[in-house]
Amino acid sequence: MPSTNSSTVTERDSTVSLRAVSSKSSGSREDSSKENDSVQDDFFWSYTEEPHRTRRQAIIKAHPEVTKLCGPEPLTKYVVFAVVTIQFTCAYLLKDTPFLSWQFFLTAYVIGATANQNLFLAIHEISHNLAFKSATANRLFAVFANLPIGVPYSAAFRPYHLTHHKSLGVDGLDTDLPTALEAIFLDSILGKAFFCTFQILFYALRPMMVYQLPLTRLHLFNIVAQVAFDYVTVRTASPHALAYLVLSSFFAGSLHPCAGHFIAEHYIFTKPGHSTTTNPQADAPVPETFSYYGPLNALTYNVGLHNEHHDFPAIAWTRLPALHEIAKEYYADLPHHKSWVWVIWQFVWDAEVGLWCRVKRKEGGRKVGSGTPSGGAGQGWKVEELGAGEGTEIPGVR
Fold first, then answer.
1. DSSP collapsed to 3 states, 341-377
2. Which of 269, 281, 283, 385 would you label with 214, given CA atoms 20 to 30 Å apart?
3. Interval 269-310: pLDDT, tens
4. What proportions of the chain, in percent to the nearest 5, are helix, strand and coil?
5. SS3 call for 388
6. Rounded distance between C-alpha atoms, residue 296 and residue 317, angstroms
7. Nearest Cα to 178, choosing from 360, 377, 346?
8. Angle at 160 between CA 158 and CA 165, to 5 degrees
9. End-to-end alpha-carbon separation of the chain, Å?
10. What b/e readout covers 108-141, taking b as 16+ CB neighbours within 10 angstroms?
11. Assign residue 369 a region: left if phi > 0, alpha if psi is -120 to 50, beta otherwise?
12. What contacts 183, CB < 8 A, 6 or more positions away?
């Protein structure tokens, strides 16, 4: 694969062994089918544990002081209040502006999309209980942060996202993974451009197609609060005010610089080395999470420090740079991105990069802590590893 100036690549610290089941990346489909006739897609299949829990344990052993970084960040609530106020103000000021005008669209793209992407990622922080010590306060505050987004999603996002952490790459559980259908039908420049343009819709609808969440009172509260807010916005301001908020959310998950993080976090942009044999256990070391170190982290709760976040979900955004510095020997040589804009550009135009460039693992092969498929008790994942102050089972997390 051609090298790019957006990533620094090394395989020294890679911890994941992959078997490529793609004619594009591991030889002919005919040869691979001799080993496994059930291969139907082009993803990279892993037969090892996801890397983050192992690295977290190693970092804690080498630097036990990192555990002091865990816990909520009081600054988060003030940032959320400020961004929500900005969006409410812009929506009101645009209430009489024609929808099909450059002023409306420019404001929605430059200010609105940046603000709503910030709120998306505020909800991401809050889903790990990193705004308040109280779990209830975090759940309610996430609903508040959701209001300028225009559609209710904070209650559903939390269990799907925590499952993404607990079951990273597990086919049928990790809803961040594209489906085989998406990878097949969008495997072209136009298809990838379509995906990048409408990726907010893919991330909103795909989880419901993968598995259903139990409906809880929090979901109902999220829906009722959002519908009530939207109604009040239309009645007291205008339909254009609500249209501004929804359009801002669409742009936030479309061809916008900050939206590059969706693709940058887990898509493989550098082809791993492959064995020339047909052995299905052939090793091809490559990380499956990628960090971004650039200025847009200042607008997005440091979500670019994504390896660091997956290693320690209970560390708030303001302390992730400190984690990186303390445990720099674990992160310095990992592949990373320098530009989210370049990530989107390369994703669309590079024929060697596509939706199939993701690591997947079957649930039966997932070794999360213990040797059992489900992670089991004792040595498996514990709920408190998914965020600060978690003490009970979380409905919908698998």
1. HHHHHHHHHCCCCCCCCCEEECHHHCCCCCCCCCCCC
2. 385
3. 876 554 333 333 334 356 799 999 999 999 999 999 999 999
4. 55, 5, 45
5. coil
6. 13
7. 360
8. 90
9. 35
10. bbebbbbbbbbbbbbbbbbbbbbbbeebeebbbb
11. left
12. 41, 42, 43, 354, 355, 356
Task: Give the tens place of pLDDT for each residue, 41-85.
Answer: 578 888 888 889 889 999 999 999 999 999 999 999 999 999 999
DSSP state of 64: G
44-46/18-20 β-pairing:
antiparallel
Structure tokens at 169: 């790459």
Whose CA is closest to 381, among 16, 18, 57?
Answer: 57
Whole-angstrom CA distances from 4 to 10, 113, 298 are: 13, 27, 24
Contact 48, 288 (CB under 8 A): no
Q: Tokens 């970084």: give the residue.
A: 69
Q: Phi/psi of residue 359, each to 5°? A: -85, 130
Question: Any residues with CB less than 8 A from the CB of 106 and at least 6 apart, and which?
Answer: none
Angle at 20 between CA 16 and CA 25, to 5 degrees: 125
* pLDDT tens digits along 351-379: 999 999 999 988 643 433 333 434 333 34
d(CA 11, CA 275): 15
Return the structure tokens found at 319: 């302390």
| Token duo for residue 294 | 């650039």
Helix ranges (DSSP H) in 237-339: 239-252, 260-264, 306-311, 320-326, 328-331
**Residue 392: band (very low, low, confident or very high) from pLDDT cuts 50, 70, 90:** low
CA distance 366 to 197: 33
Consecutive H or E run containing 77: helix 75-93
Reduced to 3 states (helix: H, G, I; strand: E, B; else coil), residue 71 is strand
| 170 strand-pairing partners | 361
The length of the chain is: 398
Question: Comparing C-alpha atoms, which of 389, 387, 363 is closest to residue 375?
Answer: 363
